[in-house]
Amino acid sequence: MSSQFVSRRPPNPVIIQNEDGRYWAGYLDVPVGTVIEINSAKTGVTPNSGRTFIPPQKVADEAAYGLYLRSQMPPSNRCCTAVGLARAKQLKNREPVSVETLKRMRSYFQRHAVDKKGARWAIDSKGFQAWLLWGGDSGRDWCNRTLEQLRE
To answer: Dihedrals φ, ψ of 50, to 5°?
Structure first.
């Protein structure tokens, strides 16, 4: 008896980040480029799936300034995680931001607002760099305003 190998194109590889920041990698049989938003609290798609918002120029400018400051620091004084750097590039390039990303931005700003009161809050601090990378005060105001409008 001879065996026969049947080749089947596998589904497309995907990486999904859920609300708590964890990633899931796998394969889904969806067209390349399909945007999928997962809400880990419920199975299915979030109510605002597909809605995106373009960051204002002022937010892009603060993120660009944060990237510039970071590039001028010695490696030991550069801030941020890969997520923070990716967010800065997204904002600087004025790429569309999803509702879930706006919620993550709001969460970042809420957690780190206390950092602004620190004695070391200055142009050469990692916290200051990170705040700018997430859009600075303009980014905080924009995401809060946008999410508030969505609640209405």
So the answer is: 90, -15
CB atoms within 10 A of CB 50: 11
Beta-bridge mates of residue 115: none
Residue 144's pLDDT band (boundaries 50, 70, 90)? very high
pLDDT digits (tens, 9 = 90+) for 82-136: 999 999 999 999 999 999 999 999 999 999 999 888 888 888 889 999 999 999 9
Packed helices 82-92 and 57-72: angle between N→C axes, nearest 10 degrees: 130
Q: Characterise 135 by phi-psi region: left (phi > 0), alpha (psi -120 to 50), beta (else).
A: left
Residue 24 is inside which H or E element, if any?
A: strand 23-28
Which region among 22-31, 61-70, 76-85 has the lowest average model confidence (pLDDT)?
Answer: 22-31
Cα separation of 55 and 143, whole Å?
A: 9
What angle, 0 to 180 degrees and rounded to 10, lies between the N-to-C axes of helices 82-92 and 99-112? 120
Among 53, 52, 57, 51, which residue's Cα sits nearest to residue 138?
57
| Residue 117 DSSP class | G
Buried b (16+ CB within 10 A) or exposed e, 56-91: beebbbbbbbbbebbeeeeeeeebbeeebbebbebb
